[in-house]
Amino acid sequence: MSRSTSRLAGPRARLHLARGSARILRAAEDLFGDQPPAAIVLTHGHFDHRSSARQLAEHWDVPVYAHRRSWEMPSYFFTAFVKERRLGVVLVAPFDIRLPERIADPVEPDVLFIRREHQPRAGDLRFDRNTKLPAYRDAGTPETWLVDPIARTVEVYALDPKRAEYALRERREEGETVSSAILPGLRITVAELFPSADS
User: Fold this and answer.
1) Quick one: 60 exposed, middle or buried, by C-beta within 10 A (0-12, 13-18, 19+)?
2) Residue 96 to residue 106: CA distance in whole angstroms
């Protein structure tokens, strides 16, 4: 939550405030009187804000909306745990999934674990090459990676601003290291990007 108060338009304005539920309640009463907010919005992932948010949600009987960054650390630990034990794959929102019998179809979980035996087969890169790559080029994206899980290769495309076209900067395969011009110093061993043969 931000460290300042702000009045937002609408019949049930939302309030963005600092930590401390008592302070927030007093500030809210000064700004809005007895009218409760429509919701509590956690704008970033500081976990020390959770206690105040819970207390305020119970006091006002309103929902709490958490920023996606609040799931960054949990997803990191899930991913490390799953990768180390070769259990499958962890996906992080945004993405949609379909539940059996179209229950609440679609839904978007914050973090999803897929067991190794249930992982879908990877497709080819035709859509990436023919649709996504030109779209990123037209949007002015300076660097794009195409990661091919079948060929187990990585292609790095750099945008030439004079020609407004992508040029293949490097193509790496297992046994080699791929790098980024956008993130100087980043070097990744290609083999680490793909599950091992027995995973």
Assistant:
1) middle
2) 6
Total tally of structural domains belonging to the chain: 3
* DSSP H or E run through 138: helix 133-138
Q: How far is CA 120 from CA 11, 124, 195, 197, in A?
A: 47, 13, 13, 16
134 contacts 127 by C-beta, under 8 angstroms: no
pLDDT digits (tens, 9 = 90+) for 63-110: 877 666 667 778 888 989 998 888 988 888 777 888 888 777 788 788
Q: Is residue 198 part of a domain?
A: no
- Domain residues for 30? 1-66
Cis amide prior to 109 (ω within 30 degrees): no
Helix (H) or strand (E) holding 84: helix 72-85
3-state SS, residue 184 = coil
